[in-house]
């Protein structure tokens, strides 16, 4: 089976709830991307910072946005990101070949219906 065949029917961008990180990670073995090195301890498996990932790619990425990036992605398009924060988010989002999971925290109100929520049953 070719690598791209593994993701037929499940390509794109999904919001992944904190409670589903372990399921998503077990199923897809993603490269985990965090904003800075201090956050590496919160992930399961391979991990790099968004900045260090520039120039690389992976079939599946699980992105751990900062609170500020989460507000921008999931809550309000009126949120303005600092240039470095915006640039790192762009780099992180564009590393996935087939599947991008973006972790969202339950404490943030999820009001973006443009990013579907990943559920283990849909893959």
Structural description of this entry:
The chain has 123 residues and is of the alpha/beta class. It contains three helices and five strands; from the N terminus they run E-H-E-E-E-H-H-E. It has helices at residues 21-28, 67-75, 83-93; strands spanning 12-17, 31-34, 47-49, 58-64, 96-104. The chain has a five-stranded parallel beta sheet, covered by helices on one side. The radius of gyration is 14 Å and the shape is globular.
In short:
With 123 residues, the chain is of the alpha/beta class. Helices cover 23% and strands 24% of the residues.
Mean pLDDT equals 83
Q: Structural class, from helix and strand content?
A: alpha/beta
How helical, in percent, are the residues? 10-25%
Assembly classification: single chain
Distance between the termini: 17 Å
Main-sheet strand order equals: 1-5-4-2-3
What's the total count of β strands? Answer: 5
* Rg (CA only): 14 Å
What is the N-to-C succession of helices and strands?
Answer: EHEEEHHE
What is the overall number of helices?
3
Shape: globular
- Largest sheet at a glance? 5 strands, parallel
Fraction in beta strands: 15-25%
User: Which regions are unreliable across 5 or more consecutive residues at pLDDT < 50?
Assistant: none
List the helices and strands and how they pair.
Elements: E1 12-17, H1 21-28, E2 31-34, E3 47-49, E4 58-64, H2 67-75, H3 83-93, E5 96-104
Parallel strand pairs: 1-5, 2-3, 2-4, 4-5
């Amino acid at each position: 089976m070719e690598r791209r065949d593994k993701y037929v029917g499940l390509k794109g961008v999904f919001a992944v709830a904190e409670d589903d990180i372990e399921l998503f990670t077990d199923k897809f073995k993603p490269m985990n991307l965090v904003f800075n090195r201090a956050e590496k301890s919160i992930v399961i498996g391979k991990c790099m910072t968004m900045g260090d990932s520039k120039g690389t790619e992976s079939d599946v990425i699980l992105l751990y946005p900062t609170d500020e990036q989460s507000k921008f992605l999931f809550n309000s398009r009126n949120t303005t990101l600092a240039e470095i924060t915006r640039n790192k988010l762009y780099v992180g989002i564009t590393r996935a070949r087939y599947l991008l999971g973006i972790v969202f925290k339950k404490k943030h109100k999820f009001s973006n219906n443009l990013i579907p929520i990943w559920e283990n049953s849909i893959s």
